[in-house]
């Protein structure tokens, strides 16, 4: 199944920092890059999201919020860290109030490097992460179908 057959729903978490990567995410909504043409939808509700996109710094104050957003997402779910700050805390890594990368709070599946990350790379990272969601869903669907086949075969043998 191609990612275009189902649109990835993305929730964006913009931590603290210069807001450069957050601005690049906003550029992804503009006609020049256009999330929609890549089949990407944006939501503010974690229960509707397939992909959590993290930009900016994760600090001691906002790490709890990030964790709650992730916990409220329905499985299968994936996380994309975009930009140096989200990936590794960038130049702020030595600060005591900064968590050294989003992966210390939630599991990150795709890292998009850069300061700030380019919109094309952010879109590519979301698509790569969503392909993993689809693989997981397809695997679960195949397990369900094979389980149903086994049950029906057992019923036929009983008759």
From TrEMBL:
Q: Quote the InterPro entries the UniProt record gives.
A: Complex_I_20kDa-like (IPR052375), NADH_UbQ_OxRdtase-like_20kDa (IPR006137)
Q: Where is the composition biased (Basic and acidic residues)?
A: 137-150
| All residue ranges annotated as the NADH:ubiquinone oxidoreductase-like 20kDa subunit domain in the record | 18-127
Give a single Pfam family match. Answer: Oxidored_q6
- What Gene3D superfamilies has UniProt attached to this entry? 3.40.50.12280
Kindly list the GO molecular function terms attached to this UniProt entry. Answer: 4 iron, 4 sulfur cluster binding; metal ion binding; oxidoreductase activity
Could you list this entry's UniProt keywords, alphabetically sorted.
4Fe-4S, Iron, Iron-sulfur, Metal-binding, Oxidoreductase
SUPFAM superfamilies in the cross-refs: HydA/Nqo6-like
Q: Region annotation Disordered: residue ranges?
A: 137-159
E.C. number: 1.6.5.11
Q: Does the keyword Iron apply?
A: yes
Q: Which domain of life is it from?
A: Bacteria
Obligatory cofactor(s):
[4Fe-4S] cluster
- Does this entry carry the keyword Glycoprotein? no
Show the PANTHER family listed in the entry.
Answer: FORMATE HYDROGENLYASE SUBUNIT 7-RELATED (PTHR42989:SF1), HYDROGENASE-4 COMPONENT I (PTHR42989)
Q: Which family does it belong to?
A: Belongs to the complex I 20 kDa subunit family.
Q: What name is this protein filed under?
A: NADH-quinone oxidoreductase subunit NuoB
Q: Which organism is it from?
A: Candidatus Allocopromorpha excrementavium
């Amino acid at each position: 199944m191609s990612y275009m057959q189902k649109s990835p729903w993305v929730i964006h978490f913009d931590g603290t920092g210069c807001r450069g990567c957050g601005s690049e995410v906003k550029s992804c909504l503009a006609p020049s890059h256009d999330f929609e043409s890549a089949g990407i939808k944006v939501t503010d509700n974690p229960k509707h999201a397939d992909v959590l996109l993290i930009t900016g710094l994760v600090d001691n104050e906002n790490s709890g919020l990030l964790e709650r957003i992730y916990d409220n997402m329905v499985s299968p779910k994936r996380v994309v860290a975009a930009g140096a700050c989200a990936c590794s805390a960038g130049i702020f890594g030595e600060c005591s109030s900064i968590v050294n990368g989003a992966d210390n709070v939630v599991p990150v599946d795709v890292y998009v490097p850069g300061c700030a990350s380019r919109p094309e790379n952010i879109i590519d990272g979301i698509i790569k992460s969503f392909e993993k969601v689809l693989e997981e869903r397809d695997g679960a669907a195949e397990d369900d179908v094979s389980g149903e086949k086994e049950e029906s075969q057992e019923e036929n043998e009983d008759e």
